Amino acid sequence: MADQFAEVDKLRETLLGLEESADRHLEDINRQDILTRIETVIQTVVTSVSKGEAPVLSVMNRSSWTNVMFHESVGLVLKPDASVVTLRSDWPSSATKFALILKVLSVIYKLVQSDSYATKRDIYYNDPQLFGSQKTVDSIVDDISCMLKVPRRSLHVLATSKGLISGDLCYLEGDGTMVDCRSSTTAVPVSSNVNGINHIVSSAKFILIVEKDATFQRLLDDDFCTRLSPCIIITGKGVPDVNSRLMVRKLWDTLHVPVFALVDADPHGIEIMCIYKYGSVSMAFEACSLTVPSVLWLGLLPSDIQRYRIPEEALIPFSQADERKINSLRRRPYITCQPTWENEIKAMQRLKQKAEIQSLASIAPRFLTRVYLPNKLRYGCWI
């Protein structure tokens, strides 16, 4: 297995080189720097008001592919000349978001000033009628992080994690709490303060990202983390939250072991895997701390459908939404640069059928944990 991961070490060296300058910059972002950046924004608003002008805010357009570029060693990163969206306080279409950004900025200012922390959920429930939904708060916090050019963790705003982790792993939380993930029956929620984790201890030979909670629970029930070799399994329960992505990245940086992905053989499963590996457009401004470019596609590969003769009744026909998604994937730079991945996606498109990981149970109830994964890992059947 060591020979097959020689490229991973080379990739890590490149990535670390890119991050050194970013790390030096982030070290300089202390509490006073953050307060100063917020004060500068507010000062601009106050100055406009004093002149009788309608104040405006400029936020990065975090939903446009034209604002990101692809770097093989990092993933999707924000362009230096990325376009911005202007929020005017006197325009009905943007006045509400303008006001909400100022509201959240005031909350963040108080948190940083007092050196205290709050979750995004805390902010929402402070005035649920004002914000309308948790999603609104989540988006505004990310907009502010991007606008101030400050990592979200430095804003003293934490996110409640939805991910789970289990396996050969122990660590200390930022508050000194010892966390032991070695239970064979229950999983541990991913920390809401991943950057505060330290003293990581593990003998894991690899990390396995699992797309779905149901599959994760199956691996847990079958004691997968100790049956084959010591390992760590983690799930973001579908599209991963930032904390799940941060956790995978922190473990990769610390343990220097291979990272595999186990996802459904469908367009959405592939996209979820790509978020862990290459990041997302909306969080491209934090790519260096979220992506793991060495992630390997372990399964379920579209070619596995015929290789393992998964019964026809266990397969699902493509929908129009699947067709649109797979066409979108094929146009993305991180797919076009990987011929083996692109070939698998083409095979899926020709087949016009998809398969969930659970479809392997139609071959045998424990086929996934007793045959499929052991063989994949033993014989290097990943791409």
From TrEMBL:
Molecular function, one GO term: metal ion binding
Protein origin, superkingdom: Eukaryota
Gene3D superfamilies per UniProt: 3.40.1360.10, Winged helix-like DNA-binding domain superfamily/Winged helix DNA-binding domain
GO biological process: meiotic DNA double-strand break formation; meiotic DNA double-strand break processing; reciprocal meiotic recombination
Cofactor: Mg(2+)
Localization: Nucleus
Enzyme Commission numbers on file: 5.6.2.2
Active site: Y125 (o-(5'-phospho-dna)-tyrosine intermediate)
Catalyzed reactions: ATP-dependent breakage, passage and rejoining of double-stranded DNA
Main subcellular localisation: nucleus
Residues of the Spo11/DNA topoisomerase VI subunit A N-terminal domain: 97-157
Domain Topoisomerase 6 subunit A/Spo11 TOPRIM: 206-377
Record-linked InterPro entries: Meiotic_Spo11 (IPR013048), Spo11/TopoVI_A (IPR002815), Spo11/TopoVI_A_N (IPR013049), Spo11/TopoVI_A_sf (IPR036078), TOPRIM_Topo6A/Spo11 (IPR034136), WH-like_DNA-bd_sf (IPR036388)
Annotated Gene Ontology cellular component terms: nuclear chromosome
Keywords: DNA-binding, Isomerase, Magnesium, Metal-binding, Nucleotide-binding, Nucleus, Topoisomerase
The family this protein is said to belong to: Belongs to the TOP6A family.
Name of the protein described by the UniProt record: DNA topoisomerase (ATP-hydrolyzing)
Species this chain originates from: Triplophysa tibetana
